[in-house]
Amino acid sequence: MLCVVELFTYLDPLREAGFAVDFVPRVEGIVGSYDKEETLRELEPVHRQAVEGLGFQWSQLWRAEQVHGAEVFSIATDGPGRVVPAVDGLLTKRDDVLLGIYVADCGLIWIADPVTRAMALLHSGRKGTEGEILTHAVESLKREYGSRPEDLIVVLGPCIRPPHYEVDIATQIARQARAAGIKNFHDCGICTGANVADYYSYRLEKGCTGRMLGLLGQGIPAPRGE
Q1: Which residue of 39, 65, 69, 105 has the fewest C-beta atoms within 10 A of its own C-beta?
Q2: What residue ranges do the domains of the chain occupy?
Q3: Using CA atoms, how far apart are residues 135 and 184, in angstroms rounded to an integer?
Q4: pLDDT, tens digit, for every residue of 47-80?
Q5: From the CA atom positions of the chain, what is the Rg in Å?
Q6: What pLDDT, on a 0 to 100 scale, did the predictor assign at position 50?
């Protein structure tokens, strides 16, 4: 089993703002299956390495159930469990929490506020994009943490795009970002359907595939001087 480590420079704006961020693409030797949970168990050793590489423990990883909706959940204190049911997005400003979202064609959206240190990680597939999960997340960040849209850094990761999919979710997400007042929006421009050798694609692989993992947390603070 081999995971090719890449820097993913499109995540640099988040790193430069002091956030811990990573993306685990297709893992060599793991093809995946129709059973999502079985596939995630196979991928877990590599995903654990990515979590620990950011300075977190696996027990600190919080995930959304991902039901292809547009609901988000704010992790302020303890929640309903490390997998939050019935949501596709997670928000927090806790430094002991690492957010995780699985994708295999759907849009993965990182959001970070370098001013308030609030952050969000979203799963934006066709239905979630149509439901404007990004808009809901920005509104929640404003309401819960006092974030201003113009301060937010937003990054869209690899997702399926035309002609491999009839709906251009990337263009819709970019339009929603502009409408929400986000000025610092970055689209990596990568199509999962056009790069199946490097990324899992649920559509191109007809459901028999793996899952990629996006991660977002607070960066490890620099040591304070005496």
Answers
A1: 65
A2: 9-217
A3: 15
A4: 999 999 999 999 999 999 999 999 999 998 776 6
A5: 16
A6: 96
